[in-house]
Amino acid sequence: MESGLCDATLLQVKNVNKSFTLHNIDGRNIHVLHDINFVINAGEHVALAGTSGAGKSTLLRILFQTYSSTSGTILFKLSSGDWVDLTQLSDSEIVALRGREIGYVSQFLRAQPRRSVIDLVTRSGIARGMNNDSARELAQLTLEKLHIAQSLWEVHTSVLSGGEKQRVNIAAGLISPPRLLLLDEPISALDPENRALALELIQELSQSGVAVLAVFHDLDAIEQVSDRIIAMEHGRIVQEGPTKTLLPLLRKGYIDA
Amino acid sequence: MSSILVPDPVVRVQNLGKVYGPFDAATIDRTGSKIGTARDSTSGSIVAAWDVSFDVQPGEALGIVGESGSGKSTVLRCIAGDVSPTTGDIRLANVEDGKVNILDYDAAQRRRLRIDQLSVVYQDPAEGLALGITAGGNIADPLTAAGWRNYSAIRTRAMELLQRTDVPIDRMDDLVRTFSGGMRQRVQIARALANNPGVILLDEPTTGLDASVASGVLDLIRSLLEELNIAAIVVSHDFRVIEMLTERCLVMHHGRIVENTLTDQLLEDPQHPYSQKLIAAART
Questions:
Q1: pTM of the entire structure?
Q2: Predicted ipTM of the assembly
């Protein structure tokens, strides 16, 4: 067995590289990720740290298959216990995995102009296999936990403020969570009070066995929710270790955050 | 091998091709994306679509994008039966359990499919509707073709469909000619859904509508697809339409599929040179 692997292992990323070939700019090739290797276990919260441009979001997008990887394997353990290589699946298989098995919460709410807040969150629950009534009930509960006033539940998401949109996005992303959740700066637009509420929900995920790989802008959030840190620089993993060991180094600037 | 559950497709299209004019293997070789033209300079024949294969699952919308002349509408019209393909194999799960190639059907059998299996929403409502007839009459048409005879049952069903597509019921007995573009499109959608088809084909469904009207129509289509578990094929040159409705899509160029991918991957990480050009143009 390789180091770090155990029965709880959910994701094994092996030698992943990513380059973009820009056919219309003299065929230029830009190599953005170099030999990425790591594993994540169920219930584990791993933070990706590094300056902008280090490749954190690129990595999350590759895991969600919004970007295709250029080489390497991404082994994911299905709820059935079978392992699949995400890079080898058909598009329809990826569509089927998204939602129930792998989720992605970005910084922004995807524009859906005429959908109400409660509808958006409820539909997310339904897409993840809940029935209508329990999805709606859970949607209400989640919105309450995130302090989205009931007066906003029936309004269209397009009229919400930036912070409200981000909280609705979190509610939709966290309801009936998939087994692996990828978070890309999900709390960047929130004030301290709302950020604390969102982080509480994110913490609960780990207790329920969800594996989380997250990018947070601030180190306090990383300290509060993550078990382990993977530090990246120029498209490479440069350090990896328990949060309590690595965070002091990040704070002191020994590793670029 | 893997235990990922992917529903059986409702539509399966294999090696669909449409050539205008005489052709042989060399004609095919002298056209396509790599050559940069759909017209064979030797014979003058046009290879409007060639080697087009894909499938669509229930509740899923598949997008086909490409510029004018790429062959995307030809593919849609071949499936609809408006154009006779030169070659290919099209199977529908709901038609004889997918055991027949519907391209082997005769004209009457093909017309029959259009009544309750395969509906089309055209860019131009004049193509899908009789403008000189009432909204109710336009919906009653496919219902009577499917064997509905009871007047009040037909009216009730028409009312139900107009309500679901947000057309004011008090306009039901007005001529479609008096309707706005957005409302005509809603009537077309209502008519397309009349007999609960398994597949709906959407050809530039919002092109030509104001942005706000278009987003209302898109939202309606999206809700209906989720609700009714229909498979849809959406042809559009507008990436907002494709982004809002589909999870997977094809890019066509000079009659060929050049990329078959996840919609978000096409938008964020297009692979083919032509797809990259198309996305770059849409972003500016």
A1: 0.92
A2: 0.91
